[in-house]
Amino acid sequence: MNSNITINGEQYPVKMGFRALLDFEEMTGKNANQLGELSTKEMIALFYFGIKAGSRKEAKKFNYDFDGFIDLIEDYPEIIEQMGSLMTPEEGK
């Protein structure tokens, strides 16, 4: 999945590829086969690593660690809605 998310008025690419999955697995111990059984923290971590991977791929600065990303969600709760929209397949596709 490749898409974009807006955080504080700035667009960031999201890429849910192998890099994001490997970083997610390293942090959580869960692999791709367990993605249907994620806690809230794990879902946020997966999305965080997707943004980091997308930003890296497009050479865009994303200067947040995981705790900083959680703080962003606290300040900009619309990030959660965007996360949900990206994770839900569009009907008719």
Q: What is this entry, summarized?
A:
The chain is of the alpha+beta class and 93 residues long. The protein has helices spanning 18-28, 40-57, 66-75, 78-87; strands at 2-7, 10-15.
Describe this structure as you would to a colleague.
The protein has one domain. The protein contains four helices and two strands, in the order E-E-H-H-H-H. The protein has helices at residues 18-28, 40-57, 66-75, 78-87; strands at 2-7, 10-15. A two-stranded antiparallel sheet has the order 1-2. The radius of gyration is 13 Å and the shape is globular.
Mean pLDDT: 88
Strand order of the largest sheet: 1-2
Overall tally of structural domains? 1
Oligomer: single chain
Residue stretches low in confidence (pLDDT < 50, at least 5 long) are none
Major sheet description: 2 strands, antiparallel
Rg, rounded, reads: 13 Å
The total of helices stands at: 4
What fraction, in percent, of the residue positions are helical?
Answer: 40-55%
Strand content: 5-15%
Structural class of the secondary elements? alpha+beta
> What distance lies between the first and last C-alpha atoms, to the nearest angstrom?
14 Å
Shape: globular
Total number of strands:
2
What order do the helices and strands follow?
EEHHHH
